[in-house]
Structures are given as structure tokens and as C-alpha cells.
């Protein structure tokens, strides 16, 4: 499978199944335009999501229903999602969600299978964010526990990466506007993002990080 980032802003995601797995999936799509969870029962962790908005047409919609395999296609046609998630404890219903979605050219994530996937199927990775930096990792659905353990490791490793991304992006644009040659520009930015001094400076504040970065840049440009 080829990893891709997909912007779901303004789109609908439908999750069939409101148990532990379905609720975890729903939380992972909190930036989608609309999330619809279809299930006869809902895990407690879905309640805060429902309470985040007083708008009944807001991003989280819990629908108490238990569609059987024959009714799934009608639900997908009615909701017209960009992505359908099959997260029930009924293999037949999950298979029906997958079949209906693929038949309509809709992306589908089936949570009760691992390994090989049909074209159009997606695996939802574990993610670590330090805006604007996002790291996604997946075990191909074979070991969610390992994905979680790796995510916790990476969280510590990328602390401060968001500030570094903003600073290095700012520097890159400044050097470009100043007419610095591409080779020098790339070297300067490379040296900045690899400088321990800049990382430590950013921990004390943006101005400290910028000061350290300016010293690194000056050394590169003066060579």
C-alpha cells in the first residue's frame, strides 16, 4: 500500500459500529466535515464528541440503528461519504460495508481484517502531531498494539518539531527572497534543522531559537 495524506475537510465519514474500535476511529476523523456513527449502542468515549457541538448538524452525529448486511448499501447511498469505516462485530455487515463502498468508488477502512487489501481500501494509521508536523505510522493492520507503542516513542522524539518547521520554513523564504543561491539556501536550512543549539534555543522560546539559527546561517553564508 502507498501511504497518502487525505484532506477530509468538508467531507462525510460514516462509521458503522459504535463500540471501542468504532469510537476510536470516529475520534481519529475529528477534522472531517461530518462524522456519522451508525450503531445500536455507543461507547462512553463517543459522548464527549457528541457534546462538543450544540448544532444537530455538527461534525459528530450518532445514529442509533442496526442495519443488517442487506441494508448497508442504502445507508451509504443516503449519506454519500468520502470514506466508510466497517467497525462492527458482525463480519457479514463489515463485508457488506466494504463491498458497497468499493462498488461506488468510495474509500473504505475495514477494521476486522489485516494484511492484503482490495484496491480502494485504506488503513488508518496511528498519528503523532506537533502542528504543522504530522507523523503517521502503520503496521498494515497487523498489530495496533505495536502501532500505539511506536507512536508513544515518536511523540517524545518530535517534541518541538512544529516550532522547528515554522522557523525553518520562514528562513527558507527569507533566503529565497534575498536571492541566496539554491545550494547555499538548502545547506543553511539543513544546518539549522540539524543544529542542537537551535533545538535547545526553541525550547526557551522562538526568539532564542531564531538567534541560534541566525548564527548557523551566518556561518554557512560566510563560507
Provide a brief overview of the structure.
The protein has 223 residues and is of the alpha/beta class. 46% of the residues lie in helices and 15% in strands.
Q: Main attributes?
A:
single chain, 223 residues, alpha/beta, Rossmann fold, 2 domains, five-stranded parallel beta sheet, 9 helices, 7 strands, 46% helix, elongated, precorrin-2 dehydrogenase activity, NAD(P)-bd_dom_sf, ferrochelatase activity
Mind explaining what this structure looks like?
This protein has 223 residues and is of the alpha/beta class. The chain has 2 domains: 113 residues, NAD(P)-binding Rossmann-like Domain (Rossmann fold), CATH 3.40.50; 61 residues, no CATH class. The chain is built from 9 helices and 7 strands; from the N terminus they run βαβαβαβαβββααααα. A 5-stranded parallel beta sheet has the order 3-2-1-4-5, sandwiched between helices. Helix 6 packs antiparallel against helix 7. The radius of gyration is 22 Å and the shape is elongated. It starts with 11 loop residues before the first strand and ends with a helix.
